[in-house]
Design brief:
- 11% of the residues lie in helices and 11% in strands.
- By secondary structure, it is low in regular secondary structure.
- The chain has one domain (10-55).
- Strands 1-2 form a two-stranded antiparallel ribbon.
- The longest helix is centred in the middle third of the chain and has 6 residues, at 29-34.
- The protein is globular.
Length: 55
């Protein structure tokens, strides 16, 4: 994740990992449209690459 000099990099609130990325809600596509599969990430901003926690 690119971080500007004056910003603090986000860390996972569950496992404290710095390996997080911003969720691209536009990529939910068909999964989000057709049901519950994509619903979990529709209202989330970040996902942890280590423990897969979203917030």
């Amino acid at each position: 994740m690119d971080v500007k000099e004056n910003q603090v990099a986000p860390s996972c609130p569950k496992c404290n990992s710095m390996s997080v990325e911003k969720v691209d809600n536009d990529n939910e596509g068909v999964q989000g449209f057709f049901g519950f599969y994509g619903r979990g990430h529709l209202d989330k901003d970040f996902i942890c690459k280590d423990c897969e926690y979203t917030w």
